[in-house]
Structure prediction request, 324 residues.
Amino acid sequence: MSPVAGPSLTPLVLPQAAPVLGGSLSLSLSPTPLLALPALRIPAPVYQAPKASSLELALDSQLDAMATELQKPDDPLLTFVRKEGRSLLSKIAGLIRSGEIDPSAALRAGEGDPAVPAVGRELRVGVYPVAADPFQWGHILIALRAMAEHKLDKVVFVLAGDDPRKPQMTPSGFRHAMGRAVMDAFSPLFAYSSIAVGTQYDGETNIFRLLKLNPQQSVHAFYIVGGDHYRLKDKNGGDDTLLKMEKHLGDPNRFDADKHKVSLIFVERGEPLARIPTPLDIHFLPDVGFDASSTRVRSGHYELMPYAAFEFVRKNQPGLYGIR
Prediction:
């Protein structure tokens, strides 16, 4: 396919609170004032949270660019993603305006990242481990839904490292760079974590490694994972997410229970999952409503990709996933 120029993409940027101006201002006309002026106080500008329309800008620019690229302005999947995404972003904008969440809050998300000063409240943060081979809209909508329904300040995507058991997986260096391009497009709602690079740790381990990078910050972390992991044992008889988390949370050396707590969000695919007795704090999210899988992207369904990921592949490794 010959490249078709798409509209310019605008990253989602939430404005920071303006600096507070205050204090007294006194004016003097000479060393011996002839006129005494009353002290003036300049009120601090009022912080205005972004409107839903500004939050929709990044979403729309990604979808419009892909529709132009594919020459499918009325593609039903892109239309669905736009409608669902706008609805979720509207809810998130309302939570920001009411002060219930603050996506500008920062966490240290990788061992090479600088320390981040703690804020004086508990942060509610989604931790979403993904292979991102490649990123697709299912990842984005699930993260937005988790933010909207569970009042999360932000979602940190933990991209998987290399796995010798999966030799066909795209090398982590490329996947992580592509993932960062997507995160930049949706900043500050989403953040990228490099904590899995160079390791074979599973997501249930990496969430606690991430918490340890923030020892002074109070964090309520929500581990986001597919409903196929809502079980005690995997198909090979090893521990799956429920048992792994029970064991980790029962280990006092794993995390600081005074500063950190962990809940789980399982994404249900199809029928609701049969509930399993567990001491864990469990929540459920419905699936995105379409067949969202990286496998489908690799078979040519590029409408499933955010344009930032598609364009990154085309510029940096043409031919990957069949993209040229």
